[in-house]
Amino acid sequence: MTDAGSEGLRPTAAQPRFILRIVAVVGIALSLFQLYSAGIQPIGLFYLRPIHLGFILVLCFLMFPVTGLYRARGLGGWLIDGPLIVCGILVGLWVPLNIDIIATAIVPRQIDVIIGIVTTLVVLEAARRAVGLVMTLIGATALFYAMAGQRGALPGFGEWLPGILAHRGYSIDRLSSQMTLGAEGIFGLPLGVAATFVFVFVLFGAFLEVTGAGRFFIDLAYAATGRQRGGPAKAAVIASAGMGSISGSAIANVVTTGAFTIPLMKRLGYRPAQAGGVEAAASTGGQIMPPLMGAGAFLMSEFTQIPYLQIVLVSIFPAFLYFGTVYLLVHLAAVKQGMRGLPASELMRVREVLAGGWHFLVPLLALIGLLISGYSPLRVGFYAIIAVIAAAAGRALWDFLVTRPRDGEAASLAGLQALLGSGVRLTLQALELGARNAVAVSLACAVAGIIVGVVGLTGLGLKFSAMMIAFSGGNLLLALVLVAIASLILGMGLPVTAAYIVLVILVGPALSEEFGMAILIAHLVVFWYSQDSNVTPPVALAGFAGAAIAGSKPMATAFQAWKFAKGLYLIPLFMVYNEAIILGGPLPLLLWTGLVAILALVAFAAALESYLFAPLQLWQRLLLAGAAIALFWPDLTAEIAGVAVTAAILGLNFLAARRLPNEQPL
Q: What is the pLDDT of residues 33-56, one digit of tens each?
């Protein structure tokens, strides 16, 4: 569920053991606090959000020393980090302890303004360490913009703003109050989502991770696809879809599933860059894969006021299209290169994998069942964690009482004590890991709150919408291209969730209000495009992670990832021009739209690879490319023509494959 990937529990060379223990204690305390507020006693937002942020700030300054991860902090480092940790505690306690005075004050007290300034500066510094310098610069630029105006703290700079961006300007006192004394700044909606839905599902993923669910999904994928052509690559696609239910992070998916899939892909015949690219493209689908679509999906629910379950349900088919496209491209690459599957002797059977890990499916089924039953996502996450603990404990007890005695190992009191000790250690490890994994996304959301506050204060959102219309000339397709370019630029320095928040704040109103796009589709388009920095050169973060494992050149791997992840760009376009795929409609229309979407992506994949059942000739590729464009066109006549051309070309290709010796049709 995190964007930055799992920090894990590995100590760095520069962190003394006692600091690691403090990190563990703070992380466990934060997770227990969040579980209490999620499932036992709900806590008011002006208590929950500041306390959550206080914990996160303390964790951040403990985990990320000012001297860097791999250098000793030393006395000089503690002289900087010590006061920052104290400030983190102050941030967490100030508003909850003074809420009555703050709520009744007509004019903010000077001390509240000072604490607000401290909070803002500390959040920016923490974000610099945990998220990256770009996020801090964007937040600082937003604050600078708010103060630049004739009546602001920086009146001289207001003269440099273009006419459409000019505004009155705001004082430091007014800006500080906006940031920390209401629900439209740092303690606003983004941090609120991070402190509730996001954290509890990050913790759910941590419990799945420490109990071995990741290895189970990888083994299951191998057992299901390993014998097929390009089996390890197909296993990477399926395993990444499964791992997406745990992490929702492309980079985390690459480093976990890729450690197993990339070496086997290379052994089977995939080029190193190709193997790393396949893994990166497959892993990118983690954040668009229901039921846990990354932190952005929970934010989308809050921004649009659409139930999370509805967002999950409408996202199933697009996610299927994305993974289906990657799977098809992987298959075509394997067939073109004459690859075979792994020997059966090297693979487990599906029933054997399920026998060893079926209990990992119980919490996922419970999660889906509770969502369908109408429980809030927060309560669903709480009960899902309980289900993970119960499933893991039940399986461990069954092995202790039944399986081991059957194999000749008698149950004993010492064995039971060891089992209980192991269970406690795993639980504490999961609580700490969940808190660690939440640091980056919570700080990204806190800085996003700064941006939201400035946009609301200055009216920047409406101005940006006007700029977008001017640049695109009112053309929707051109506007979408501008959104894609903006998402790519933001994604070079921001995590996916942060890029989504920033982009949707700025362009969301224009897409929905000026171009008439349904609000859910507008948010889904921005959400999908915000993933593209994982696989799009020149900065393809997941591609670079895959290159490190594959031992290939980063840029070559990034281009391969970009090739295999083309569905990331095409499927949002299909959503825009074929709204029924998201908004629903009569059953015949839904079936037709689904068929058109599948055919369009198959035609595109075949034209890209110059192969489907057999090699495609140049004229066939050109016709398929044109047919794919027609299938995307929001006109029934064009769609029918596209279906007819696609079916004819694919039929000819199938017949050609039947005439080739030693070739089996797809």
A: 999 999 899 898 899 999 999 999
500 near 296, Cβ under 8 Å?
yes
Amino acid at 100: D
What residue segments make up the domains of the chain, in order of their start? 585-666
Determine the average pLDDT of the residues in 628-654.
Answer: 88
Beta bridge partners of 615: 611
Helix (H), strand (E) at residue 217: helix 213-225
CA 625, distance to chain mean position in Å, is 31
At residue 137's C-alpha, the angle toward residues 134 and 141, to 5°, is 140
Spatial contact of 433 and 9, defined as CB atoms under 8 Å apart: yes
Dihedral of alpha carbons 132, 441, 221, 528, sign: negative
CB-neighbour burial class of residue 594 (10 A; exposed 0-12, middle 13-18, buried 19+): middle
- What is the pLDDT, as a whole number, of residue 373? 83
Helix 587-609, helix 308-336: angle, nearest 10: 30
Residue 476 has pLDDT above 90, yes or no: no
Q: Give the DSSP H/E element, type plus range, for residue 374.
A: none
Sorted by sequence, the CB contacts under 8 Å of residue 494 that are 6+ apart come out as 131, 132, 134, 135, 138, 444, 502, 533
Instruction: Give me the torsion for CA of 354, 356, 357, 362, rounded to 10°.
Output: 80
- Please report the pLDDT score of residue 140 as a whole number: 93
